[in-house]
Amino acid sequence: MSMDGEDQQTEIPPSFVALYADARQRLREPLAVVRQRYELCEDLAQVLTGQALGLSQSGSVSDQEVLQRCLAGLRTADSGLSADEAGWTVRRLAELLGWGWPDSPDRAD
Prior knowledge:
The protein contains five helices and no strands. By secondary structure, it is mainly α.
């Protein structure tokens, strides 16, 4: 099977597609670009699980603080992610770890 065929099997969750959709639900970028960005963010969330667990289990930082730190790091220009992608990646990280994460982490309650 070609690489293109494998790429076509990658299912992009609606929550990620929404980052690239306009008001009419049309993609603002080619599907191949959206797929590539999704795979990057998904892989990053998977890689961060070990680091996040390590910080959390150290006992010095709460789960929410770990997620906030990850978000802050991913929102820097050096990360290569947009702010929306950073937010999605941290929500996915929280989901992978079974940790709660507010829909709007920037909101002060």
